[in-house]
Each structure stands twice: as structure tokens, then as C-alpha cells.
Amino acid sequence: MLQFQVKSIGRVRAGAAGMFLEIDREYRPALKELDGFSHLNILWWFSGCDNERSRAVLEVPSPYRKAPAVMGVFATRSPERPNPLALSTAQLLRLDHTNGIIRIAYIDAADGSPVLDLKPYTPSLDRVAGPEVPEWCGHWPKSLEESGAFDWEQEFNF
After folding, report:
1. What CATH number is associated with residue 78?
2. Is residue 133 one of the residues assigned to a domain?
3. Using the 8-state DSSP alphabet, how is residue 6 labeled?
4. Which of 48, 57, 62, 115 has a CB 3.0–4.6 Å from the CB of 67, allowing a cystine?
5. Beta carbons of 13 and 20 less than 8 angstroms apart
6. What is the total count of domains within the chain?
7. Residue span of the structural domain in which 146 resides
8. Please, which contacts does 94-99 make with residues 24 or more away whose CB atoms are closer than 8 Å?
9. Is residue 106 part of a domain?
10. Claim: this prediction has a pTM higher than 0.70
11. Whole-angstrom Cα distance, residue 76 to residue 127?
């Protein structure tokens, strides 16, 4: 089995003041020219699920009300998976190069979650014009912008 070493570049900060990415000092030069991008792809670590038990989970009870009763973790956004990696797209609201603070709209990460990498969202590389999804989630919003008004509470089993 191959082993990889991954080093965080910062942390997610979530609280009453909103959601931020706090980039470590040594990585702040990498923020140069990020200005002007409206969204980021954020690769982060589900640190709360980085344990032997969570990494062994391959199937989970469906977190979605209209989906099959049991699903493979690769068909879900479950934090329990062989490698607890998460990928989220978020709106970039403000960038403070000097202090390494990136204010974002929202991602489903807990305060303190390690940030592994950032990539600018570019429609030519990240957007798929006609993605297909299973029937059980075909009624979900077609964009991040539409998701804010969607009643997600009716979709999940938790």
C-alpha cells in the first residue's frame, strides 16, 4: 500500500462571525492573484472521522430520504470513508492577503478542520453542462446558488 504525507495549509474557522479559511503564514504567498475569482474549490480533512473505525466504513445507511436504504460511501458525502477527504465549493467573499484570511459563504466543515489545498473555481474546468444524477436526487437544485433556498431538511435522514 502506498503511503502519502499531507500537510495542512491552514484551518477552517466557523463561528458567530461567519466562516473563514485561516491560511498559515508560510502559505500566504500562494494567495497571490486569487483576487477576482468568485468561488474556490476547498480540499479539507474530515478530522473528526480520522480513525480506524471510520476509515473502515464502506457502506452506510442512506443519509437521503429518497435514496436506497444502504449506499456505498463513494455514492454519499459521508465523512466516514477510507480517506476522510472533503471537497467543497464556496463563494469567496473577501480575501485578506496580509493575514491569510479568506471569508467564504459556507462549507459543511467544523471549526478547526484542516485545509489541505485551494483551487480557484473555473467554469471551463469545474462546471459540467449536463451532469446526470440518480432519480432519487434528480429534483435537487442545479446550482450552488439555487441550493440556498432549497428545503434540504426534507432530503436527509438526520
Report:
1. 2.40.30.70
2. no
3. -
4. 62
5. yes
6. 1
7. 10-121+141-154
8. 95/31, 95/34, 95/35, 97/28, 97/31, 97/32, 98/28
9. yes
10. yes
11. 20
